[in-house]
Amino acid sequence: MNRMFCVSTKRTVSLSYFPQRSRIDLSFQIVDRIHEILTEKGLRQKDLARMLGKTEAEISKWMRGTHNFTIDTLISIENALGEPILEVCHTGTKETVLA
Question: What's the pTM?
Answer without folding.
Answer: 0.69
